[in-house]
Structures
1.
Amino acid sequence: MKPEPHTHTNTDNPYHLTYKQLNWVSAYLQPGGPHNATQAAREAGYKGGPNSLARRGFENLHNSKVQQELARRTALAREETKDRRERRLRDLDAIIDDPDTLPRDRIAAMQLQGKMLGWLSETRVLETPDRARALGEAERRVAERAALLLHDTRLLPDGTYAPDPPESARGSSGPPPGPAESASGTAG
């Protein structure tokens, strides 16, 4: 004679599912899990071949009490996720509003908060041949400008320019003549 399945009557099992049905629901809903009825049946402890496990998974998936338990646990998980999100947003608010927080940390908290609220998003630019050519040209111009700046003796390490020396201090070692000066020998 087959023993009666053990049912839980506590608040964790309001639909009086069997132990294996409860295990099946847990396996079916496990985070990152397969959400596959047959695999959940195997993990819940049901025995048999692939067809038998598939049948058990199908039966559980279409059982009204199991469906109610799936809906209950899904709602609980959704509520926990919502609560956790709200706590994180409050924590980020505290970081942003704290005057003792470093500016870079406040900015990072604002960015995270913006992403969580959907105010900011990661964007990807579709590369096309024309865009690649334009970017290549822009990069070339930036590289040329950087090379000029590196060779400019007036550029100081802090990125500012030294003032031009007075005309008397330049003497004969002034700047080389420009193209108009070299052609005629005199300026303008």
2.
Amino acid sequence: MHVAVAVGAVLDLAALEVLDGLADVRGHRAGLGVRHQATGTEHPAETTDDGHHVRGCDHQIEVHLAALDLGGEVVGTDDVGTGGAGLVGGFASSGSFTRTAVNFEAGAVTRLSVIYSGVLVLAIVWLLAPAADYIPIAVLGGTLIHIGLKLVNLGRMRLLMQTTAADRTVLLVTFIAVLGATHLEYALLLGVGVSIFQALRRAEGFNLDLLAEGPDGHLVELPLEAPPGGRVVAIDLQGELFFAGAEVLERRLKAIYDGGTQALVLRLSHAYNLDATCAEAIAQVARYARARGQHLVLAGVKPGMYETLDRAGLVRAMGADAIFRHEPLLLGATLKALAHAHALAGEGQDSGTGYPDG
């Protein structure tokens, strides 16, 4: 369907003075190649030409209501869109959730299905376009509602509503936005934004667990609710290590030393994405401990994290003997780090259990 504009240009060879004879030459030079059209009219019945209209006058332009002339003088936005796409080496297309759903329900397995369905729709429109006028709008609306309902996966929605608060929030925000937004893409962008925000909230958190040494030498994982107070303490640091949590991490580790701990083993096997800010926070903790005659030992340091610590100068500042790199054997590096920490604290491994007092 073409959307007509109010003014359409008609190609008139005579007006352009193409292939004309000498009899067609006029002295007022209102045709092709005129430099400036002077104000005035050629015939009394004509209106005055625009004094600043270059290379033409108003009697060479048809001004009329939008009508379908045989010459095709109607200019539409679709012509401009397809022409512009061709200029940049592309082709005009459109995307639709409902069309995708229909293709999928029909058994589509590749992207070529979109092209095939487009060709099929083109053929149907070309051959049966007049018959489409007899399809009731209610039938088309019912078809769209049916397709929309098939897009709803109740089982998936129930799972999202029951799993986590973050999933539930993203689902509800997107659903409400789809109902109220003026454009569908705004609702989708809002849902994506909420999802990214929820992911960042989860990523900025880290967790500290106490690895208490049992009488049989096994390590027992306990929640770290307060500084444990033992001379040798092992802490399992889990989560993302980037700038958002650096200050809190530094404060909590220093509080352990303030409780009387002489040697702290920090297990990093389950810590990820260490950045410069968190590396500096760990370095500050190491300097804080050294100034008080205390010790910090790192355990389970993976290769990528070790390189980050090395570039940050922490390996040189702490000493390579205070950093135990990750080993395939479960807790292998942690047990070695604990033995080293007991030696630094000047006690045998059996003399400090690491359990909280009381």
3.
Amino acid sequence: MDLVLNVGMDVRRRRVAWAFRKGERLMELALQFGWGMMTHSRILLDEWNGGTVILSPRDLNDDQLTRLSHDVTGLGGRSIVDPQFYLPHSDHQRLCSHAYWPREFEPEHRLLPAEWETLLNNLDGLNDELGTAEFLLPGILAGSADYLDVWLDQHETMLGEAQRLGLLDKWSCWATVAVGADVATQADSCQRIVEWLERWSVDGVYLVIERPGALCTWP
């Protein structure tokens, strides 16, 4: 199983992600896309003769996502799209403009199986269109240990739908685990998440840790 660590959920441009592969002495640097990085990504992949770019729908419109993903492939690289579904009630204009994004969620809304099904089908089509290397499953931010039961229930439902739809067989699927500083620093909370992950046959984990002091909350 691969573990990809997104270093810092923040709005700064300085974004990187590391991939650790069990049993190998290897650390792969992936470019976590930020605002204004299209040209930078192309230049670096050309110089490196390949690499991985994690695409950001928050920073790219539909046309830019398609063009950059195909450019990455043409340069011998791999692209992955992060759905950035951390806050389902987000009102970020560009992020919410994408076709896969659901509409009009209230802050405390819990997604029903049918809503997860629609989101996953839309993301399946997007990943097909972009030719991504892996499928990053959508993940909600666990901003507080008090809401971890809600978080686990929501992600259990989501993974159940992904399995029912055949996505776990079709793709190399990575579970997105997005946690706030409060959750990340509590051993009991982390253990519960690890035990939950062990029950599912995902191929990797995309770990996103909110920096201390950030204002994101769920629910």
4.
Amino acid sequence: MTNFLKGLIALAVLIPPLMFFVNWRVDSAVKRAVEESKITQPIAVGELFAAKCALCHGANADGSETYPRLNKYSKDELVAKLKMHKSVAGTNPIMKMQAGSLNDAQIEAIAGFISTMKPVESAKESAGSKAKKEAARLDNSGGKD
């Protein structure tokens, strides 16, 4: 066998493990870069709210029977609440996880975003207020239409 063929065989044996190692290193570097970009890459505050808050607190932060209404608080109150949940003092595990994944700039942005939302009158509240208005109208008119 010639030296040329021996060299080709040696390359054929050595190249696959070498390529595996290089690909593994590149894949690891790419994965790390993607993970870091998720943390530092700015995203629109509306997308941040949708990803972190809307599922529990509602699309307009009106809350529900289980989760509190957020759109009644000022920006400063929301910042304080989020920072409390993020800190050691936070006792709600879901909020600790959600707030814990936000940096200070994101907390400021999301608090400002929520504080601009106006409560939406629910169907139950709407029916109740219509009934009250009708009762008041009838009282004022003496029951006459």
